[in-house]
Amino acid sequence: MNISAYFLPSRRPFRPAFTLVELLVSTAVLSILLLVTLSALETMQRSWRETKGKVNQFRGARIAFETLTRNLSQATLNTYWDYHFTATESNVPPADVASPPAGYVRQSELDFRVLPGVEVGTGEEASELPGHALFFQAPLGLSQGYRGLGNLLNARGYYVRFQSNEDQRPAFLPGGVVPVKFRYQLMEYRPPAEQVAIPATTANTGGGANQTVQGNTVYTRPDWFKQDLETASRPIADNILLLLISPQVPIQAAEAAAKAPYWLAPLFRYSSRDANNTTPALDKPTLRRDGTLDQGTRHLLPPLVRVTLVAGEEGSLNQWHAANGNAAVDICAAADAPFAEARHYDRDLTRLKEYLTRERLNFRVFTATVPMRNAAWDSTTY
């Protein structure tokens, strides 16, 4: 009997295993791979957030730009033909009934106006009302007391104003809940068709008595667009730095007439009550040698309107405003881009972009040429 068989240890089969060094190395490699993967994932998430933020940031500006161009395309003058008397410079007969009319011409009580934004306000500087302003009438159906009147005539206007949001914050919120911010805003002037009373609790009334918005009763006034400008205007987009408006004619027609497309408004000014918009003065129709009246561009909508909107990004603009003490900055003067002559539009826009880039502002430029569907031009007008 072999007793050693009971006491000798049994031999088990050899199984290979990882050493401690190998485990440490593999753990280090896995950690590095995990860090690389997390870093790449974080970069992708950051890029997605930034892209989404930019899209959302300019969404308000894009919606406002589409609203502006859509309403602008519906502008109308409702022109008609009537006698023109030289003595009264209108279709109203003079006291001398024996005085014959000078001609049979276009007439309209409505107005299409493009002018520098600083001329809209009363006492504001160019830094507070930069760029251009646009005012017109269109069948937009805005009424305070009636519904279903889709073709009701309304005035509409657009301009940029630098202001705080203090008057726009809800009155029931305690102070400090909504911080006061200073920013450029695209304002929409939209009085109703009828006269309405605005309660004294509404912003911009100063807490006094009710104010009456005159509606469609003031179109014949020279400065009708200033009527109830404060009470009938509302911001439709924040961080809009500049609005540029350039009335034009089609390139083919301009080339055929050996003129520039912007010849009818070379100074970024246009009034449908002006016979010659190449000068700031309000010109009346002139009498030709053959005895007919030359109305020029009077009571005519421009065939095309080029609209440019410069929008900034919230974060970079907040830092920029803080660096400037939350005060308005004359952007056009700082960029050496006055936008005073249409022939320098491209040059001024390039300078503006370079200035905004130097100031480290994230921005986007929206541009569109809007055909005016109610423009009634012919070959003699061009």
Automatic annotation (TrEMBL):
The keyword Membrane applies. The chain crosses the membrane at residues 20-41. It holds the Pfam family N_methyl. Keywords: Membrane, Transmembrane, Transmembrane helix. InterPro entries: N_methyl_site, Pilin-like, Verru/Chthon_C. The keyword DNA repair does not apply. This is Uncharacterized protein (TIGR02599 family). The lineage of its organism: Bacteria, Pseudomonadati, Verrucomicrobiota, Verrucomicrobiia, Verrucomicrobiales.
